[in-house]
């Protein structure tokens, strides 16, 4: 067991917290015996998935009990948070009862790795039994003919889909304000955004409305909201998880990712959803390890568990334009990692600043093509018209939102004859440079660290009229998508804001398919971070 | 020969960028769609007799007026793979609308294309058959436009790196058109997916979309602008169809749209190196129509040149109207369409190994051109060569007959003569005939060894085609064995001479051509079975001797 680390105390200085012991939300099993209201000393987050599994196997609790507990919390928190576009509470209850019957008759074999685990699914992932809108009016009421591969794999592992979470329309945005349906609020402060585009999935896990959730990450859409909401967010290597059933935004960048309240839960989820899928030829056949197997519990850790680990802290991410509170949180996290035995050095990624414009050209270009199918002809919103072009124009004009239209226009422009070389092709060249500069850095370092966003959650409406400011917020994350690398965001500290401070996430970037190592490092980091708890204050009152 | 060589040289004067490739000649969606509907509605009447010859003659005359035409063809070949190009749906022409569709080929949200490996195999086969350079690494691109028959809003195609380039087609023009060997360049071959079909209501108030065809694999074969007459273009198209059928990669059926040709035609004064303004013609449902449409278009353009109205030849798409035998403006091209091609991010590059390509190369059947050269070397006439080699079923039957030991010339004569005539009358194709190549060779052998006469053979042939069986069994069953016993023939001759004293007298008086009459009488008496050779010998002797 490592010595208690003090580094994080620095982080706490950014928080306006009372000296009184803070309340903390723990795993389901402990909730039943020790209600959340009971003051619990802050400590490493337990695995909700493990405790659900233990309860089911021991017969201590039924899936129906667990489901109803989550659903009741969901019902109480949802009016203020608004994570979900669609809640399938009745279906979830039915699924839970069905699971209980199977456990009763079939015994322990019926308990899959995610049995009884309530999952929120980002609404740009197709679900056969629930509407899937992508957050867009143009798909209002659309119900897919099939389950996305990631969703199907979760279900096959016993997970119960509790609903579809809110997002920026088709994943285009960084605040979830771009949803055509509702604005989701940050559980830490309801005047602030949860981040985006997977804001609903992040806030749902943060508010413990579900155990884990699926998101998608094209330029940071899992990592930035994870940081804003104080949850663990994983963006796997491009191709690690099948994209089949994910409504494409930018196909060469899109990745299905996951959220959990602990690294262990996130790792469990990845083990289930990762792997080749014959329906997605860009999915990788690279072996899928059991990502949980390298996660050692706190009491079994050596004193310097990260010995021999070389960490590079990306110099360009701690400079101008980055919130000082965020910088000090990341620096504190770095020294925490150092105290765990790793060597942390500054590393420069010279092409870092080029990534953002290249990302917006490539992502918009692909989006302009991927969204062509939303034409009102075969499904979704159709505005009747006398003439074909009018039908297309009116259907898309009324069905698609402002941000989406802007990106379609930008992308169409970038791909147009005469502009292709100057924009799309040049952006691809930048992408190659970005990839190379990461490759170089990852030869010298096992893990690169940076903030997941330049600031903590900002106010709702703050950047709605300044898209460039919003785009600039993606600077920490887009390069990773351009390079196709895996990255894990783990809550590491707080900055001032809200009633209890606002969480800050630490981004850890690794080589392709090094999710196992990232999760191992993230797990050690999380388990050794003391005196902090990333449970939003709203839950303490429940 | 000099002409042949000259024709064989590929036109190189044209820089590739202007070679009538992608943007400049791709159809706009509207054009495509309309063509298809017209294609369905147009009944295709039998070709007006002699029109090809007429047109060819006219074209030749027009050339003499100091102009020449330049023709290039884009051919779309549907591949008859079991499943579509990027999903696992089957495709059956004529099945119920929207019965062979899935979320992927309907362009539903979240679906992704997965390349059918068979499509690549077919493409490589065709590329090798077209003598192309196969790209060891090629990729897919998206061609973007909106149209209701295009579910995704883009077509998966290949833009700057097609699966194959720089090939050629060798062919022999039909003898009746003056014959001659030709080599026409093939610019490129690329893989793409077909679109669905629109069905318009009669009222015109609504249209329906049938996506059965959406996602069906196509090869687009782009020719160099090497053709000069309608018949050359038609023969180029026919040779592509032959290759497709020989290779078994598609049915090449033009009526069903499995093979579609879009033709670019321009004319220029002989001696001028730049091309004239080109016009695209569509909506031809047979090679015959292609030939006539082109020749009509050439004469139309030359006429405008002669009337000093060349400025009225504009870049446009014209439709062939079979009823009036003319082309009509469908749509003028307003600038270039911008399809905003970019690499398809959902599909990996297609990387081939040389082993893969070699394996396919080694598995290729003998192709029409090789067959024609082989038949030619057997001493068959070009007419025979073309007839036998240009239909893979006929060629297969012929080759198989030779394998059983038949003489090439005799086999050719039987196949092209009696057999074809009978099949034509019965509206059967050669693979529907019950006559096997083995039995045809047996029959030819039976004639040779004197078991049956040629006349009897004709009877047997019809029997075998219609009912099958062996030559032997038919001969026995019908008692058709040739009478080769001299004594029996002598007896028959004696009887005929005795029964016809009047004619015998006339013969002896010098009317020697009556020998034929006697021979006929003997043959009749023998029910056609008397050996003609023996009969003539014996009859001659008897007439001379007595």
Q: How is the secondary structure organized here?
A:
The complex is a heterodimer of chains A (542) and B (546).
Chain A: H1 9-12, H2 28-33, H3 48-58, H4 63-81, E1 84-87, H5 89-106, E2 118-122, H6 149-156, E3 160-165, H7 199-206, E4 212-217, H8 223-229, E5 232-235, E6 255-260, H9 263-273, E7 310-314, H10 324-339, E8 343-347, H11 355-370, H12 388-399, H13 402-415, H14 421-444, E9 447-451, H15 467-472, H16 478-483, E10 487-495, E11 502-509, H17 515-528
Parallel strand pairs in A: 2-3, 2-4, 7-8, 7-9
Antiparallel strand pairs in A: 1-3, 4-6, 5-6, 5-10, 9-11, 10-11
Chain B: H1 2-8, H2 22-25, H3 29-41, H4 51-64, E1 67-78, H5 117-129, E2 133-134, E3 137-138, E4 141-144, E5 154-157, E6 164-172, E7 181-193, E8 197-200, E9 207-210, E10 217-223, H6 230-247, E11 259-269, E12 279-282, H7 287-306, E13 316-321, E14 326-332, E15 342-343, E16 350-351, H8 354-363, H9 368-377, H10 382-389, H11 392-403, H12 408-425, H13 437-448, H14 454-467, H15 471-477, H16 486-499, H17 501-508, H18 514-525, H19 532-545
Parallel strand pairs in B: 12-13
Antiparallel strand pairs in B: 1-10, 1-11, 2-6, 3-16, 4-5, 4-15, 6-7, 7-10, 8-9, 11-12, 13-14
Helix pairs in contact in B: 4-7, 6-7, 9-10, 11-12, 11-13, 12-14, 13-14, 16-18, 16-19, 18-19
